[in-house]
Automatic annotation (TrEMBL):
Enzyme class label: oxidoreductase
Cofactor: FAD
Cofactor: how bound: Binds 1 FAD per subunit.
Gene: lpdA
Name of the protein in its database record: Dihydrolipoyl dehydrogenase
Naturally occurring in which organism (per UniProt): Marinobacter xestospongiae
EC number: 1.8.1.4
């Protein structure tokens, strides 16, 4: 077999494996390099998302949500369940089984589409050559017409809280606890911190979240963020803003966390501490000095809007480049790049990438927030509808939260779509589709939604943008 390919992809996460499959489907001879190795020495595909990120965390979120629902909320619905307990070992087994099934599925897709998997660590050399070093340290060089870098990201370490022996862990370690910690600390009230904190809080941990910023979820529309914060606090998540961690120590099987807040110096004692302060791009030792690819000051690979780097024929996608660190964004960029290599001219619409926090209630959004539009001086109008007035949400015992639609004051075009509530991750897709097609709020208002559904809240919020909501009182128009 020749060692020359049309496309070599470095990294087999949601960006890399999708790019490799798409490139192969387009008739390009494609290889995909991945270093991840199982305990028995075999290559593992799927990257962070499938192995220690999106998928395992969602498995634990689902199980913990069902457990909490059974323990705390079934009785009020007439279901009597006694002696409900959580078997952490079995829960972890199920999580691992789902991961194994999905990663194995990618290997089958590679085979079906003719993608060659290369097991080892990839490094980009000059002239689109890729050096692959296997686990024994043996290196082999491959040539490519095009190289797609999709090496992803890893958790950021912070000096005041170095990882330690299962006591202080990152997001990966937080998916591996073998029992429910009595007291759990989380540094960072972002997406990962909230999701992992939620899992263990539902299972019985007393959870304290320390967040250095003074705004809760600053990237989220603040009406939605405030509603979510109220719900999380009600569930027992103790979220402290303006709390900067200054040091940690482990003594007698306890973690001591020192932090400063508005009241001065504080100390928190917990059984486990999760560090979830964000992620950084995996670019260490990735690029030879003469590769022609440039990094910005934060270690991200510099690319244009089509994910092309400064080196001809070299592309980069996903967490390793600008934009949100989201699996679906990486996949879309992977498809775009493969199509462009094949001679087509697609673009990713970065204005229509949805964001989701898989807590309960879920938080999801696409487009602009009210705060962004205010700061840009744009004239806009808003329609909101609470799930408390939605029959299906009430029937499901999940009537917290709201749908919020923001539209341009003059054109009525939808600029932002925000949801906090049940199945927000699914509902937000309606906003994505609407915005992708340039819909107005009136377009959604004139659409017939099935009754009773959660999606009727979208209909009512769209009606509310122009003061026509039926099932909630409308804002009085200014005279």
């Amino acid at each position: 077999m020749s060692d020359k390919y049309d496309v070599i992809v470095i990294g087999a996460g949601p960006g890399g494996y999708v790019a490799a499959i798409k490139a192969a489907q387009l008739g390009l001879k494609t290889a995909c390099v991945e270093n991840w190795t199982s305990d028995d020495g075999k290559q593992v595909l799927g990257g962070t998302c499938l192995n220690v990120g999106c998928i395992p965390s969602k498995a634990l979120l689902e199980i913990s949500h069902k457990f909490e629902e059974t323990r705390d909320h079934y009785a009020e619905q007439g279901i009597e369940a006694t002696g409900v307990d959580i078997n952490v070992g079995k829960m972890m087994e199920r999580k691992d089984g789902i991961v194994k099934q999905l990663t194995g599925g990618i290997a089958q897709l590679f085979k079906a589409n003719g993608v060659t998997p290369l097991h080892g660590r990839g490094r980009l050399l000059a002239n689109r050559q890729v050096e692959v070093t296997d686990n024994d340290g043996k290196a082999k060089t491959y040539e490519a017409e095009n190289v797609i870098i999709a090496t992803g990201s890893n958790p950021i370490d912070i000096p005041p809280a170095p990882l330690k022996d299962g006591f202080i862990v990152d997001s990966e370690g937080a998916l591996e606890f073998d029992e429910v910690p009595k007291r759990l600390g989380v540094i960072g009230a972002g997406v990962i911190g909230l999701e992992l904190g939620s899992v263990w809080a539902r299972l019985g941990s007393e959870v304290t979240v320390l967040e250095a910023q003074d705004t809760f979820l600053p990237a989220v529309d603040q009406q939605v963020a405030k509603d979510a914060l109220k719900q999380f606090k009600k569930q027992g998540l103790n979220i402290n803003l303006k709390a900067r961690v200054t040091g940690t120590s482990v003594k007698r099987n306890l973690v001591y966390v020192n932090y400063e807040d508005t009241k001065g110096e504080q100390e928190l004692k917990v059984d486990k501490l999760i560090v979830a302060v964000g992620r950084r791009p995996n670019t260490d030792n990735l690029l030879a000095a003469d590769s022609g690819v440039n990094l910005d000051e934060r270690g991200f690979i510099f690319v244009d809007e089509t994910c092309s780097t400064d080196a001809p024929g070299v592309w980069a996608i996903g967490d390793v480049v600008r934009g949100p660190m989201l699996a679906h964004k990486a996949s879309e960029e992977g498809v775009m790049v493969a199509e462009r290599i094949a001679g087509h001219k697609p673009q990713v619409n970065y204005d229509c990438i949805p964001n989701v926090i898989y807590t309960a209630p879920e938080v999801a959004w696409v487009g602009k927030t009210e705060e962004q539009l205010k700061s840009e001086g744009e004239a806009y109008k808003v329609g909101t509808f609470p799930f408390a007035a939605n029959g299906r949400a009430m029937a499901a015992n999940a009537a917290s939260g709201l749908v919020k639609i923001i539209a341009d004051e003059k054109t009525d075009r939808i600029l932002g779509f925000h949801v906090v509530g049940p199945q927000a991750s699914e509902i937000v897709a309606q906003g994505v589709i609407a915005m992708e097609f340039g819909s107005t709020a009136e377009d959604l208002a004139l659409t017939c939604f099935a009754h009773p559904t959660l999606s009727e809240s979208v209909h009512e919020a769209a009606l509310g943008v122009n003061g026509g909501a039926i099932h909630v009182a409308n804002r009085r128009k200014k005279k």
